[in-house]
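Whether sequence alone determines local backbone shape is best considered at the level of individual chains. We regard such an encoding as a compact summary of how the chain folds. The sequence in question and its structure tokens are set out directly beneath this paragraph.
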Amino acid sequence: MSRLPRHRTVSDVMTKHVHVATPLTPFKLLVRLIEENRVSAIPIVDQQGVPIGIVSETDLLLKQMRAGAESSRDLLHVRRRRNERAKGDGTVASDVMTSPAITVASDTGLGDAARLMQDKSLRRLVVVNDGGRIAGIVSRSDLLKVFLRTDEELREEIRGELIPAVLMASYDAIGVDVCWNVATLSGEVDRKSDAEILTRLTRELDGVVGVIDELTYSWDDTAAVAAAPASRQRHFKAI
């Protein structure tokens, strides 16, 4: 039996060479690390290499916004303003970092990572290994790299791996065309459920943008007629 194509994880797309800093790294050095390495954030790690926070450009820019934060009378966000003023007065990483760091395991699926970013309104996630130490960093743009897979690569994966795994054989009758990462499936399968499963799994392949379903089937195995259950109600005649 063939196996389904594997789904990519954050370890496949993350940046593995990550510039990090310690809680006592001076403010100026944080700015230098971001500027010289052309990154937008620096993870902060403890002595064991475990992420404890992250310093982004947004955190550092609060230093420039101190005057506005002091004069703001936004009573609806008093706590946020107090936190921003504290960061604006910070001199080392532990003062300005956002903590705790939101982390994911290196084997986290791209879809799960994307959902976490969306839910938490994050631009990046710190990736950790089994020991909880930093292994890399994955950004929104990293997650989009999977859509740069070529049409030919996707076509070969659908024909060579997905179809044999779903239909238990490599059906030459199934046509696969991919254009701009949109897959078109055509031809005839035995059952309607086969067509539905093949279409769904193709749509879920890493890098597929959409699926055009032109599959036909010999018989509809999803339209089973439910037999009416026998009534157990007891009827009594009046005497």
Observations:
- The chain is about 35% helix and 20% strand.
- The chain has two domains: 10-144, 149-219.
- The longest strand covers residues 182-191.
